[in-house]
Amino acid sequence: MAKTYRSHDEATIEMFQKDPALAAEYLNDVLATGDEVDLMMALRYLSNAFGGVQEVARRADANPNTMYRTLSKQGNPSLKTLRAVLNAMGLRLAVQPIN
User: Fold this and answer.
1) DSSP for residue 71
2) What Cα–Cα distance (Å) separates residue 97 from each residue in 23, 31, 34, 38?
3) pLDDT digits (tens, 9 = 90+) for 45-99
4) d(Cα 69, Cα 87) in Å, to the nearest integer?
5) In the prediction, which pLDDT does 2 show?
6) How many independent structural domains does the chain possess?
């Protein structure tokens, strides 16, 4: 029997795949309201929209095992790694003034 529904996560991931601006808005919200752990968890969740952690690691030219650790609650990526992860997702780091 064919699946007639999809989970919230599946629907959200599909929206991120179709709309990179939504993915950027999601990360900007996490950066504005969360902490470092929230950011790592958001990046790991968002990686699902870009083929999963292993695919993001491949695109970022990084070791998949290292990427899993980087995108964990204990992750503490360097700026270089963060930029590579975002680039692999078609995003970039930017600075904005606080309103």
Assistant:
1) T
2) 20, 13, 17, 21
3) 999 999 999 999 999 999 999 999 999 999 999 999 999 999 999 999 888 888 7
4) 18
5) 72
6) 1
First to last CA, the chain: 52
What 3-state class would DSSP assign to 26? helix
Residue 65, domain extent: 35-92
Task: Compute and round to an integer the Cα radius of gyration of the chain.
Answer: 14
Q: Do the domain assignments include residue 78?
A: yes
Q: Which of 18, 95, 2, 9 is nearest to 48 (CA)?
A: 9
For residue 24, tell me if it sits in a domain. no
Q: In the predicted model, is pLDDT for residue 1 greater than 80? A: no
What global pTM score does this model have? 0.84
48 within some domain = yes
Query: How many Å apart are CA 97 and CA 74, to the nearest integer?
Result: 29
Backbone angles phi, psi at 22, to 5 degrees: -65, -40
CATH of the domain at 88: 1.10.260
Q: Is residue 13 part of a domain?
A: no
